[in-house]
Queue: 2 jobs
Job 1
Amino acid sequence: MDPVYMQILLVLLLLIVHRLGGSLSPALQDLNQAQQLPVDLEPEFEGTIQNISSPTGREAVLTCSVKNLGRYKVGWLRASDQTVLALQGRVVTHNSRISVVHEDFRTWRLRIRQLRESDRGCYMCQINASPMKKQIGCIDVQVPPDIINEESSADIAVQEGEDATIVCKAVGHPTPRVTWKREDGEYMLLRKPQSRELIRVDAYNGTHLHLPKLERRQMGAYLCIASNDVPPAVSKRVSLSVHFAPSVRPTSQLLGAPLGSDVQLECTVEASPMPVSYWLKGGRALPNSFASASNGNYEQAGLSRPEMLLDGPKYGITEDRHGFRTNMRLVVRSFSPADVGTYHCVSTNSLGRADGTMRLYEIKIHPGGVQTTDDQLNIIGGLAEAARGRGNSASSSLHSSQSRHPYALLPLLLLLSLSLSIGTIRMAVSGSIDSNSPRNGSR
């Protein structure tokens, strides 16, 4: 019907109602209001859809606001494949984690609960106008880091001087950062590029930790830590063992003690893998060229068989281990003349064998007329200090050290003997003078 005729008809109706003293019916009132509304308004989006970033297991909500919707409808679709998820307030996808909330007659919220990695992507809010109108919002699903054990290093063992590389592969979103640290909290020792120098660092960043020309100081447990600001961070422990043959160093090669005292002998051993260590007395330890300590090997080497010492009332044997270093201690209780002699600390592992030798002698303290002076004790102490040195790491070096030792100490022994003789002569002369001197009142 032509709008002009409609206006004329409404005027006539109003005049009739006015004549009758009545009012417009509700239907006519709605018709009047409808004629007063603009007829050219199109639906429009209010604002934009804010992107969301949330960890897995949490909830994400995308909000779409529309004004002047009128007779049109709002739908939610997955942008990647145009899959329809919801239309107006009704969910049409078979996914129980998705829901739609319609608020304020103009707001539609798409809610996804218990987020999964598969939910990562962009979503479209669409109005079925002509032409179609749409807005897009994206969800970034964050994933905490995880270490792939199958692609990461297990515990490894290498020979000293060889190269080693330990690997730690991690996944997550965003891509995790991988950091290496020592488990004991000590500094890491890493070699400078194109250099033999080791430098100390707190940590190293990277999936591959390369360790060229390993030294025993670099042995230990390393932690691979993966993090990407999505808690929790994860770690993996990798034990690095550096293997080498034993080396033995006695704290002193010559020890003296008076009879009846307790004497402690000590050796420091460095070895990896963990060695078997023990003490021998007398004779000589076998060189490395002899594989076992059988009687036949000792006879073949022309050596007397030493006695193996065991922990008990006479001997106290202890070990104190710190990583690849072990302190061996032997306490000889109630030192007697039978305890004078040579003692060997021996250590052996799968890569070799080493021993150190100490000589234990008696310090004689003469009773009666000849007293040991402080000077004489200092000479004895000087003998022990002069004999201190590095322990032999192999039996060949042990033999040469023993063959040179008596001649090196000969001047000191002569000096000690001369000092004792002078003291004895001094006491004898003093006694003779006292006996021959005139007594008071004898004449």
Note: The first helix runs from residue 3 to 20.
Job 2
Amino acid sequence: MNSLKYLTNSKHGLLITRSFSTSNLNLANHKCKVLVVGGGGGGTAVAAKLCFKYGAGSVVVLEPSDRHYYQPMFTLIGGGMKKLENSYKSMKDVLPSKAEWKKDRAAKFDPKSNRVETEKGDTIEYDYMVVSTGIELNYHKIPGLVDALEDPNSQVVSNYSPKYVTNVFKAFERFKSGNAIFTFPASPVKCPGAPQKICYIFEHYLRKSHKRNDAKVFYNTALPVIFGVKHYADSLWLVVKNRDINVNLSTNLVEVNSAAKQATFENLTTKERTTMDFDLLHAVPPMSTPSALREHSGDLVNELGFVDVHKHTMQSVRYPNVFAIGDCANSPNSKTAAAVAGQCQVVYKNLVDVMEGRKPSKSYDGYASCPLVTGYNTCILAEFDYNLQPLETFPFDQSKERLSMLLAKRDFMAPLYWYGLANGIWNGPGFIRKALNIFR
């Protein structure tokens, strides 16, 4: 048996050192040493690292889904470059074999008692927890949107959900002329470049299919900027200018009337509402953490329902035995799969430090990457840190549209995710960046 020292909360809130055997896990008693809540990219990567270090019986993953999706591929599916079946694998094949998979969903967090209650009514006690629930899509918060998406002929589409993404390219093909509107919601968003990427792909599709002269393309974003990093925003403004894409800032979708083919927007500065006719509407829903975090987790989260962590260590600000990774954390980074890669080694190393009686030693710099696909053969690879400064891997200006970056996004990044990140091997391109510094 392998044993190690770990820290846990005593009844008096003190940290004490104990030892445990990694073969002690007994799911019948609903107790575990490390509970990973969520089997997405972040949870799977950290679980794989922990299982490699401590062996079978050390980790329980609480995850309800049968499929694990590589969500960054959804934009390519919407653009007709990939198929939905290319984007997922069976959850049992992705989770580490040495982890115990509990196929259920968290319903209530009780960090003061080191417990999580599940939707099926079970209680799991843990010594350490990694929260990796991601964020959820709230299509229902926009009146009329769900009904429109459920109608396959409505020309209202969304590439954010596997339920709806396959209809996006079909709507492209059905489009003949008129207004095409693409939206960005007034909420945190996973992969914040995706709402405009599909807009650029559609505009290129129009040119390829000789429909561009009969179309007006709009990108209505709730943000006050086209992109948060000026280095890349400057290039994107040139893209939309050269391609005659109309950008409306601080403009939020608030209602959809599919029958009338009309969408209502609110200007977030003036509060004025405007109704626009559309012949295609790509809607991105407002997003939030799951209700179990927002409503049933006490002081584990901030006022918006995101796990309150130190942004460099990813450790809970109140519970030393709790860490968070990915979209559900309140760390002020862009919520992308690349950010998860940048966080996973930090979370793993710092969790091990705490388990073995040390202070967290690793620091996350806010690294995130957003491959901004601008058409069927071009992409701007945005990489940046907490300070919204470029943190580029390659020794050339990545703010330029390049075929090479499109090929990397289309053909290389998914295998890197499945065989690198999900297996706990890939920790982001930092080492490549250092190696290429000689060419800068």
Note: Confidence is low (pLDDT under 50) at residues 1-28.
